[in-house]
Amino acid sequence: MSKLLEVKDLHLKIEDAEILRGMEFSLEKGEVFALIGPNGCGKSTLAYTLMGINNYHPQKGEILYKGEKINDLKINQRAKKGITLAWQEPARYQGVTVREFLALGLRSKGEEVTEEKLRDALNKVAINPYQYLNRFVDKSLSGGERKRIELASLILMHPELIILDEPDSGVDIVALNNIADMIKYFKDSGSGLLLITHSEEMLQYADKAALVCEGEIIRQGDPADISEYFKSFCFPCAKEEECETEVAS
């Protein structure tokens, strides 16, 4: 049986800047794989490339989803196959209510939109449906509230592959607890999760992890080991010595 996601020798250059340099890893169903590294190392670029966002098209390498090469698929085609990206900064939708936003998740799966389903999803992320369903998904909501509503949308869509880009960025403690709960929820239900972060605290939710430096994976394995290495050698950056030694070994 094929893996859920395989990334093989992925290279991406935007204008004259080489951002991804031979990225390579795999992800199984029901597995949480964390990619950690400092800001600017290429993690979010990888997320955009996997999702098929405009201008993020690899010049070399393969992205395989359930054994199928998807390099040339557009973002909507990847979404239909069950791939979803949860953005670092949840989007604001002027004039769109929480009810309308969540209904899109159900319709994307061809499911009937019911009040019960919408309320259940919001309750799972500690959002009171009676207070929020008719509110707008705009600047009147905090980043933490929008993050939780985005998680509720994921519950309704139930994608097979979820890419979480810096899920703990700028959120309140309630949203952070919900993120941990949702990671477990999706893992238990068989979804694969790619967790992109610069915070070693998030590694506690991962089954395996990798350290990214300047567009490359320089170390991969047990999350606790990766966390310790990240804390010990990445502040300040010791790439010139320690990381080159690790790659050579």
From TrEMBL:
Q: Which Pfam families does the UniProt record give?
A: ABC_tran
Q: Which UniProt keywords apply?
A: ATP-binding, Nucleotide-binding
SMART domains xref list: AAA (SM00382)
- Transmembrane domains' residue ranges: none
Family, per entry = Belongs to the ABC transporter superfamily. Ycf16 family.
Protein name listed in UniProt: Iron-regulated ABC transporter ATPase subunit SufC
Which source organism?
Answer: Halanaerobium saccharolyticum
Q: Which GO terms describe its molecular function?
A: ATP binding; ATP hydrolysis activity
Q: What positions does the domain ABC transporter occupy?
A: 5-239
